[in-house]
Structure formats: structure tokens, C-alpha cells
Amino acid sequence: MGGLPRRLTKINEIRTSDSNPLIVDAGDFFFSTKKINIGNKQSEKIRAESILRGYEKIGYDVLNVGEYETLVGLPFLKRMSEKVSVPFISANLKDKSTNQLIFDPYKILIRNNLTIAFIGLTNNLADTSSTLLMDDYLESGKKYIKEVSSKSDMVVLLVNADRSTQSKLVDAFPKVDFIITSGSTNMSRESSPQKEGGPYLYSCGKQGKYLLKVDMNIKDSKKPIIDVSHHKKNLVSIDKRFTRLQKKDPSKTLEEIYADQSNVLSLIEKYRNELSESKKIIETATNTIEYKTIGLNRKIKDDPDMLTFVEKALVSCNAYAPKVSEKPKSSLSKKNNIKRKSKIDHSGHSN
Question: What pLDDT sits at residue 331?
Fold first, then answer.
């Protein structure tokens, strides 16, 4: 929750520079821990509601239900969804009493003449939830992909899944355009390899410390979309390598400098081929996407209104936090002057 003020600041900056961006969350944003008990339940519920209020203020377009959202059961989840205008989606979580989906399976949104369908999935369900059922997420995903394909220009999956499962998603859902995941500490970077032609899979890790930003430039809907992130990163990386190699003698060519080092000459040829290939792809691509991770660190100024909102919410959370009685220090602790410090991380989980 502590990242909300910076998140709002950065998203407002993006709104100013971009044309009406879509803002989504793949799940696991409610609580700070999976261990919800009588001692922390009330404070965690306040935290969940505060995050939702913050997301509404930020202007999120759609939220996928992940494991964390199911930790205290369906009644609380439904109440929270009714308190905000942001739509919740889930294509494979059902009410155990009715065997019906708890939310709409997908949401179709229109931006800049593009119709984009977002489908929500999870393969994680809290062990503590006795009010929910979880259908197979692969079968559910395929079912609704087929349903929305004729209604949309693009299909995006929001998937809450563990790391081992995430690695299989591209092959499991070949007919979608993008897959955005939560539930893993793994984070995609500009240099992360992607399957040529997609689906493009992105994960920004846990705890809301990063924003994932994907820019699309579509000129011809009949031509493929090319992810140029890796190739742009490649240009910078290879240029730095050539600069380091040239430092040995700026007055000579690289071939002259390393004439007696065949292994280095082979590397130079390899780098030049990669450089040429990346330049060609960037220059000839008609439709492009570019992926960036934005660290929500102290360099980003907190939005003052959101900061005040979060501080008040944390005061409420702390009021319900269990009181820990002080225990007398053992003689060993006194003798060695041991000091223990603890820090509670109030940041969100995955956005």
C-alpha cells in the first residue's frame, strides 16, 4: 500500500504524455500476507479496502481476482467489489453454493479505435476459502478466448499463477496477443526474450515495486506486431561493448587492435551481425510494442493527496494490529547487547 502515492504520480505522468492508457492488475493486490488470522484479520481487511479505494482514484480499468483476494472468502470479496467502480473479472472462480462464476469472465474495452478483451484467470485458490470453486484455468481460458476473439481486435490474459506455471503460458495460449501475470517474484525486463509473433508474456514481480508499461504503435492491423524492446536494448548493449573494445587504441580499427586474437575477432563479427539484425527489425517493423519496467522508488515524488490517504489508512490498520507484549531480555541478550529490528512492508503485491 505504501507504493500507491508514487504509483498515482507515475500514472498521472503517463496519462499526460500518452493517449488514454489502459490500467490493469493481474491479481494478488488485497493483503500483505497469506496468513490471515484473528489477530490481523481486521487490519488486513482495512488494508484491502484502502488499496481498492486507491486503485479507484488512480483509475484502474480492470482487476483480475488472484489467490490473495480469496483469502477470507467470497462474502468479503463481493462486498469489496461492490464498493468501487473498477470491474473485477474471473473466468474460472465460482461460487460453491451456486456453481456460477463470481464475476464476469472478461471485460472488453475500446481505446484509440482498438477493441481489447481482457480475460481473468488464476490457478491459485486459498486453502482457507470454503466458499469458492476453481475450474481448470487452461480450459476456462480457451473457452473465453474463443468467445471474445470475434468481438475484439486483441486478447489479453491477466493470469495469477506461480512461477513454474507462468513458463508454460505462451505455449498453452498461442491465440492471445498478451499475457500479463502475477503471483511470482519473477520480473520481465526489456532484454527478456519473447516468442516471435507472440503471445508476449510480461510479469512485474511482487509487492507493487514496479509498474509494467507496454506501448503499442499499430499502423496496419493486418501485419504482425513486433516487440522492439529487446532489439533497442541490444543496440545500447553492443555499442557499450564496442566502446570498451575500442579503448585499447582509439586510433586503430578493431580488426587492427585484435588482429592476433581470433576469439575477440569472432566476437566482434558476432556483435556486428546482431547489431545489423536488430537495426533491420526496428526499421522495418510496421506495428511495434515496447515494454518498460518503471521502478517506484524514492526518485518518484509521492502524490500528496494519495500520501495523506495512505497514511490515514495505515493508522487505521495499526489500530487493529495485535499488541505484542514485551518480554524481558534474556541474560544472553543483555550480555551481548542484541538489538532486534522489524519492518512491516505495506506495499502492494502485483500490478
Answer: 43
Q: 30: closest CA among 5, 59, 54?
A: 54
Q: What is residue 328's DSSP assignment?
A: P
- Per residue in 314-332, pLDDT (tens digit) is 777 777 766 655 454 444 4
**DSSP letter at 315?**
H
Judged against a pLDDT cut of 70, whether residue 31 lies above it is answered with yes
62 pairs with which residues across the strands?
24
Contacting residues for 302 by C-beta, under 8 A, at least 6 apart: 5, 6, 9
| Residue 7 near residue 208, CB atoms below 8 Å | yes
Identity of the amino acid at 327 = K
4: CB partners within 8 A, 6+ apart: 51, 54, 58, 208, 306, 309, 310, 348
More confident residue, 299 or 72: 72
- The residue written with cell numbers 480457451 in the block is 142
DSSP state at residue 290: E
State the angle between helix axes of 41-58 and 4-17 in degrees (0 to 180), rounded to the nearest 10. 10
193 close to 222: Cβ distance less than 8 angstroms: no
The beta strand positions in 199-340, using DSSP E, are: 200-203, 210-217, 225-227, 287-295
Tell me the β-bridge partners of 122.
160
Least confident of 38-47, 89-98, 173-182: 38-47
d(CA 350, CA 160): 9
Instruction: Supply the pTM of this predicted model.
Output: 0.82
**4-217+290-295, CATH topology level:** Purple Acid Phosphatase; chain A, domain 2 (3.60.21)
**Residue 323: left (phi > 0), alpha (psi -120 to 50), or beta?**
beta
Of the candidates 48, 105, 39, 55, the one whose C-alpha atom is nearest the C-alpha of residue 73 is: 48
User: How confident is the model over 46-93, as pLDDT tens digits?
Assistant: 888 888 888 898 889 999 999 999 999 999 999 999 999 999 999 999
List % helix, strand, coil for the chain (3-state, nearest 5).
40, 20, 40
Half-sphere exposure of 296 (CA within 13 A, CB side): 29
d(CA 6, CA 2): 8
Distance CA 244, CA 33 (A): 46
